[in-house]
């Protein structure tokens, strides 16, 4: 039946008295509304009257017609309201534009209303936040200056900040934003309860249809956005019930994860990566933890992940106890794997609590009886959940106690550190020729250049224990003075990071001594700094020693190094005694050590949000006159608020409103660290606002740079965000944009970021070029020419700049750092701000944040080593031994291979011009050849006896000629190949090589596996299979053939340390040995060679400020006196 061309006749029926005619008119209009809506729009009043008439039999039909008319008029809120009034006539299953638009509008409205209710409910129950902190700000601002009255920091009212800032957003902003998307309505708040009930009914119908089809993720997404945890709980339970009903042969045979497990992973992913509000994330994780414990076969790794984030150490320890008590190989392997994951993701304070709550074998008697009862209670709770009988610690076997001891070793980091050290040692691919070129290009007498080479060496050899460069360059090392010596000594801590067993032996010559005078105060301070770097984030064994040395130190330089060492080793321990010791030194008001002490206080209290500590630091920052101390305290306060998100808003607001630019700088750092990795829109908005509005260049620079910390989980969004800022007239903003790209895109090789950075290498300002070079190296770390064709040209550019005599010192400094970063850890490390399991890498983020402060103080550069993460795949069996086996990579070998080493060009002599040959010379040569041939014939005529040599001699000559011809042919072919290679670009050569390779190859255990390669890794069917999906790092393996003998990988580092036990292993020993050899060469009596050398070096170190002593090391290089005497 053809449709109507005009609605005028049908619309007349709406005025008729007969209800049947009105119904007929509505039905007819509904069928052809898409073509007639323009005419029907004029009669909306009549149709609305029918809808409001309660006696009219087809009110829902009238409502549906109104909904469609308003839809065509683009009044979507009104359209949705009438569609909800249509009841069942509004069909969700229809795949039309009208239905899709209204459904999406319903979902948006449901989300906004539900989220607004959740926010309002949370605000009514929320206790007052940080009243003490507000008071301290008020006191500080009163004493600061009169300018504080213009931008008061009390009472922290939202009106003091501009709209759309970090702290002035209304609680129902989401509602307002969603309502204004179409620009047609000012609010989406539902006016009456009837419409709300209809909306709820539509949403329930939508949820039910999704659940019936198994589309659980859509419902989860809506529930999380709406902050409706009841719906989330219902969906996960429904998925679990559906899985139980459908559980059968297929799932069990394939061994694939079920819908519930996949759904849990999805919820965890969006919770950690999408949800920006800390309080909501905490609520969701608590819900997930409860649900996981109710499942019969829970995902233990997800439970551990939730426990770490929620800081529930009892949950983590109870889980470990339950797994160990099970006793089978799989449970033990899972317990070990969870312990490794806990160490990677937890703070030292959290891990210490977990270790303390694990059962210990008690050998002594009844004094310890109280602990088992408490532990029994803990085990009882756990086993009630696990539906297992409740064991008692007294009944644990010796084997189980042995497993608990191993778990403790894993949790305190000993195992992970040992394995990483072994991996970096055995796979070290440091290219010393690059390091030597940097040394030769930069004059060692210039302290900036000397320090740059030190950092380059430290980064290249980070964690490899390879200090060969120092051994081979003692004369260069002797040029280090003052703080260059401090940095050079601290570099040993970077190179030997994690070498816990040799730490004291390595640093013994440099560490402060009570009995004797020791060495230079700079080397002593650097040694304490190095001590902390070796024990970074693993300071349990080192804290007592470092605390003792720090308390005894009288020199400010030694206190400076001791404070840095204490902070790194005691990171996030929350130790009040150490904090009090540091505070006591801070109050001496020394600018030299005050900066390091303020930083160390923040590191000790990292992420605790300790109000008392913040109060002390804020008060002193307003009292002191030293800018260095204020800066140290500002960064320390930012560290205390690490990961606190909304909990840091009060502090952020106070610091950003302070008239002191250094404290505003600290406020921006607090935003960066409190919201790091969250991608928070409000934090980004605040940073961008400050980046273009603050009057201080330092504050604007750090504001742009901090975007990298907020968005490093979404690296693709950063280039677009900073594109305009990278072209700013202000060089500080350009530098910040460059560093933001490096921080957020580290290790990704992102083309968009490289395209922005390449022009900045030629920037007119030296420090912008410096930042661009450092960022390029961060992005290109562990990239080769196959992965990114620009690597070769960038490496070439770096080598060119570092050797350019006309380049500025600051640019060459950045270039030297870049050459160290791009080959970090022997080319086996990437810059990881996330852990292998996707959580925030606390040590890496903190290291990167403090590294950016090298702008003010070069020794902070060493902190970058904390963000270097080994890219390894280390398989361990249930005995924590390293079995020899192979896993498969479904790629070509060259795709993720190491970059080729630099070809060392020998110093070529100048090419000689061909000398002219005179005709007389040529004639003389010809005459000599004729005489030779004649003599040969005569000798052959005299002795004609056919001996073997005489027969073979001509034949041999002929063979030589043939070989020469063949050699000539092969050489010509090689020349052709070389010519082709020269004409082709490096990218084309790499592409041709790649095409020839086969896809797929096997990799040995304990080999390098870069993050981009993980998705191609699989474990072939064989003896060993992993307990979880490989994520890099340590992977526990289940041995399917435990009765067979296993082949283990030999640990090279352990073997090398035994072999080198008698060899000099420290820098001081190397220099002592060298001095002894020189004295032997001069024929002098050696006597106490090491002691004599130490005495000379100590004298140089102590008096190096005078300048005359700098020539002393040269005296040992002159051998002319001895030669003349002989």
UniProtKB/TrEMBL annotation:
Q: What's a GO biological-process term for it?
A: regulation of protein catabolic process
Keywords, ordered alphabetically: Proteasome, Repeat
Specify whether Repeat is a keyword of the entry: yes
Annotated 26S proteasome regulatory subunit RPN2 C-terminal domain ranges read 871-1049
Composition bias, Low complexity: 945-956
Taxonomy of the source species: Eukaryota, Fungi, Dikarya, Ascomycota, Pezizomycotina
Specify the superkingdom. Answer: Eukaryota
Pfam families given for it? HEAT_2 (PF13646), PC_rep (PF01851), RPN2_C (PF18004), RPN2_N (PF21505)
Query: What is the stated purpose of this protein?
Result: Acts as a regulatory subunit of the 26S proteasome which is involved in the ATP-dependent degradation of ubiquitinated proteins.
Q: Which residues cross the membrane?
A: none
**Keyword Repeat in record:** yes
What residue spans carry the Basic and acidic residues bias annotation? Answer: 931-940, 967-991
Q: Where is this region: Disordered?
A: 923-991, 1103-1126
Picking any one GO molecular function of the record gives: enzyme regulator activity
Q: What is this protein called?
A: 26S proteasome regulatory subunit RPN2
């Amino acid at each position: 039946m053809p449709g109507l061309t005009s609605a005028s006749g049908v619309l007349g029926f709406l005025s008729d008295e007969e209800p049947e005619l009105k119904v007929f008119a509505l039905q007819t209009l509904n069928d052809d509304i898409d073509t007639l809506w323009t005419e029907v729009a004029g009669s909306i009043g009549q149709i609305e009257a029918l809808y409001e008439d309660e006696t009219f039999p087809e009110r829902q039909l009238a409502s549906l017609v109104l909904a469609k008319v308003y839809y065509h008029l683009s009044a979507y809120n009104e359209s949705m309201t009438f569609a909800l009034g249509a009841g069942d006539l509004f069909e969700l299953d229809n795949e039309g534009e009208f239905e899709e638009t209204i459904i999406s509008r319903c979902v948006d409205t449901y989300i906004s209303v539900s989220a607004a209710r959740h926010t309002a409910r949370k605000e009514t129950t929320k206790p007052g936040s940080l009243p003490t902190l507000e008071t301290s700000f008020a006191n500080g601002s009163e004493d600061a200056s009169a300018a504080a009255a213009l931008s008061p920091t009390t009472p922290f009212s939202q009106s003091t900040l501009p709209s759309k800032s970090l702290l002035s957003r209304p609680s129902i902003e989401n509602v307002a934003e969603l309502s204004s998307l179409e620009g047609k309505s000012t609010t989406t708040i539902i006016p009456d309860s009837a419409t709300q009930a209809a909306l709820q009914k539509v949403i329930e119908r939508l949820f039910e249809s999704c659940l019936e089809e198994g589309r659980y993720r859509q419902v989860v997404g809506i529930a999380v956005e709406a902050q409706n945890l009841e719906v989330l709980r219902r969906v996960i339970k429904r998925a679990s019930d559906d899985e139980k009903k459908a559980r059968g042969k297929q799932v069990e045979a394939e061994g694939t994860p079920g819908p519930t497990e996949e759904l849990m992973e999805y919820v965890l992913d969006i919770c950690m990566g999408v949800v920006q509000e800390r309080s909501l994330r905490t609520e969701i994780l608590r819900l997930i933890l409860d649900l996981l414990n109710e499942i019969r076969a829970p995902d233990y790794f997800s439970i551990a992940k939730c426990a770490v984030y929620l800081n529930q150490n009892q949950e983590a320890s109870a889980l470990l106890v339950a797994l160990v008590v099970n006793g089978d190989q799989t449970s033990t392997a899972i317990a070990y794997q969870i312990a490794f994951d806990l160490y990677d993701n937890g703070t030292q304070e959290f891990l210490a609590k977990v270790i303390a709550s694990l059962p210990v074998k008690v050998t002594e008697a009844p004094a310890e009886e109280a602990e088992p009862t408490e532990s029994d209670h803990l085990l009882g709770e756990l086993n009630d959940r696990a539906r297992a009988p409740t064991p008692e610690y007294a009944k644990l076997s010796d084997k189980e106690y042995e497993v608990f001891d191993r778990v403790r070793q894993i949790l305190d980091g000993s195992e992970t550190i040992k394995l990483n050290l072994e991996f970096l040692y055995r796979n070290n691919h440091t290219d010393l020729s690059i390091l030597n070129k940097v040394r030769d290009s930069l004059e060692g007498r210039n302290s900036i250049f000397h320090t740059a080479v030190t950092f380059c060496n430290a980064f290249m050899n980070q964690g490899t224990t390879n200090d060969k460069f120092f051994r081979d360059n003692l004369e260069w090392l002797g040029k280090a003075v003052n703080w260059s010596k401090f940095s050079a000594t601290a570099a040993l801590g970077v190179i030997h990071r994690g070498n816990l067993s040799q730490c004291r032996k390595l640093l013994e010559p440099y560490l402060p001594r009570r009995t004797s005078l020791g060495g230079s105060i700079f080397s002593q301070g650097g040694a304490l700094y190095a001590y902390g770097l070796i024990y970074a984030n693993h300071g349990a064994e080192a804290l007592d020693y470092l605390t003792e040395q720090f308390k005894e130190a009288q020199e400010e330089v030694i206190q400076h190094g001791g404070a840095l060492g204490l902070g790194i080793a005691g990171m996030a321990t929350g130790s009040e005694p150490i904090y009090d010791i540091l505070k006591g030194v801070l109050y001496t008001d020394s600018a030299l050590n005050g900066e390091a002490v303020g930083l160390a206080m923040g590191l000790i209290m990292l992420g605790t949000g300790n109000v008392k500590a913040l109060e002390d630091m804020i008060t002193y920052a307003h009292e002191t006159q030293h800018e260095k101390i204020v800066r140290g305290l500002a960064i320390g306060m930012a560290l205390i608020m690490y990961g606190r998100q909304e909990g840091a808003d009060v502090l952020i607001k106070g610091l950003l409103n302070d008239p002191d630019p250094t404290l505003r700088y600290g406020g921006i750092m607090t935003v960066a660290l409190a919201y790091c990795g969250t991608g928070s829109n409000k934090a980004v908005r605040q940073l961008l606002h400050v980046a273009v509005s603050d009057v201080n260049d330092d504050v604007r620079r750090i504001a742009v740079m901090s975007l990298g910390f907020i968005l490093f989980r979404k690296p693709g969004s950063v280039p677009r965000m900073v594109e305009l800022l990278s072209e700013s007239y202000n060089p500080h903003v350009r530098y910040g944009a460059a560093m933001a790209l490096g921080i957020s895109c580290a290790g990704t090789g992102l083309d968009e970021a490289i395209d922005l950075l390449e022009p900045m290498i030629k920037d007119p300002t030296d420090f912008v070029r410096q930042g661009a070079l450092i960022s390029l190296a961060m992005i290109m770390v562990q990239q080769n020419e196959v992965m990114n064709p620009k690597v070769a040209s960038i490496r070439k550019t770096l080598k060119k700049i570092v050797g350019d005599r006309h380049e500025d010192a600051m640019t060459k400094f950045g270039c030297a750092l870049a050459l160290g970063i791009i080959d970090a850890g022997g080319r086996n490390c990437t810059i990881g701000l996330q852990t292998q399991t996707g959580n925030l890498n606390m040590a890496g983020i903190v290291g990167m944040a403090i590294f950016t402060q090298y702008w003010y103080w070069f020794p902070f550069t060493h902190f970058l080593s904390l963000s270097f993460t080994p890219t390894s795949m280390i398989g361990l069996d249930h005995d924590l031994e390293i079995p020899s086996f192979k896993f498969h990579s479904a790629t070509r070998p060259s795709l993720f291979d190491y970059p080729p080493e630099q070809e060392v060009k020998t110093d070529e002599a100048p090419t000689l011009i061909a000398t002219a040959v005179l005709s007389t010379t040529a004639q003389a040569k010809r005459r000599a050849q004729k005489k030779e041939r004649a003599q040969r014939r005569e000798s052959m005529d005299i002795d004609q006896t056919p001996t073997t040599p005489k027969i073979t001699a001509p034949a041999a000559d002929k063979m030589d000629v043939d070989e020469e011809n063949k050699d000539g042919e092969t050489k010509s072919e090689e020349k052709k190949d070389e010519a082709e290679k020269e004409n082709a670009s490096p990218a084309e050569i790499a592409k041709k090589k790649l095409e020839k390779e086969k896809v797929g190859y096997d990799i040995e255990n304990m080999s390098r596996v870069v993050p981009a390669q993980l998705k191609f890794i699989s474990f072939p069917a064989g003896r060993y299979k992993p307990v979880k999906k490989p994520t890099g790092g340590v992977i526990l393996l289940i041995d399917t053939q435990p009765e067979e003998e296993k082949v283990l990988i030999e640990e090279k580092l352990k073997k090398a340390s035994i072999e080198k036990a008698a060899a000099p292993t420290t820098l001081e020993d190397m220099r002592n040995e060298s001095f002894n050899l020189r004295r032997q060469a001069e024929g002098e009596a050696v006597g106490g060679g090491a002691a004599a050398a130490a005495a000379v070096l100590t004298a140089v170190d102590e008096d190096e400020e005078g300048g005359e002593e700098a020539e002393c090391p040269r005296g040992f290089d002159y051998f002319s006196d001895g030669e003349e005497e002989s």
